[in-house]
Amino acid sequence: MTMNLLFRLKRLLDRGLEALLVLLFFTLSGCVIIQVFTRYVLGDPAIFTEEVSRYAMIWLSLLGAAYAAGKVEHMAYTMLPESLSGDRLRWHVRSVALIVLAFAASVMCYGGGLLVLRALEFEQLTATLEWPMGYVYLCIPLSGALIVFYQLLILLAPEHVPASGANATAPAAPSAD
């Protein structure tokens, strides 16, 4: 029952991330189109578009990495897992998940969280739009938390997660037994 709830939460997070990533992509594309139009057609570039597109790219990259980790479609060395099976494969999958989890928890969640707090504490602002930089940096611990969640799912139920994303499909939720 608990695993079903976790996999339902995963599907909900995946859908939310998909929508957010599409929105960020269109924001990035729109800003680039506006920048090109105002620079080369009007001869007076819109100054906000460069900054918005930069931060949209940062958020798109980090949240996209979290999404890929959740779908087990991130960049990976697949030669070893493809040659393993049974307990060795489960051990390998769990080992990799532990390493990724440790990195995401320590560097992204903890370190990124400290960065966000420090930027907000010192009231650091973006150059053009004067947005608080803490909100820009917020994508680091947010992406880290998503990666931690996805890695915990792998640790708890490695049989429902493909060993590599190269030729695998998304993991199926456990049955409602």
Automatic annotation (TrEMBL):
Annotated GO MF terms: transmembrane transporter activity
Keyword check for rRNA-binding: no
Biological process (GO), any one: C4-dicarboxylate transport
Record keywords: Cell inner membrane, Cell membrane, Membrane, Transmembrane, Transmembrane helix, Transport
Membrane topology category: Multi-pass membrane protein
Localisation: Cell inner membrane
GO CC entries: plasma membrane
Domain Tripartite ATP-independent periplasmic transporters DctQ component residues, every copy: 29-153
Ranges annotated as spanning the membrane: 20-40, 52-70, 91-115, 135-157
Pfam families: DctQ (PF04290)
Record flagged with keyword GTP-binding: no
Chief location: membrane
Free-text function comment from the UniProt entry: Part of the tripartite ATP-independent periplasmic (TRAP) transport system.
Subunit structure: The complex comprises the extracytoplasmic solute receptor protein and the two transmembrane proteins.
UniProt record similarity statement: Belongs to the TRAP transporter small permease family.
Annotated protein name in UniProt: TRAP transporter small permease protein
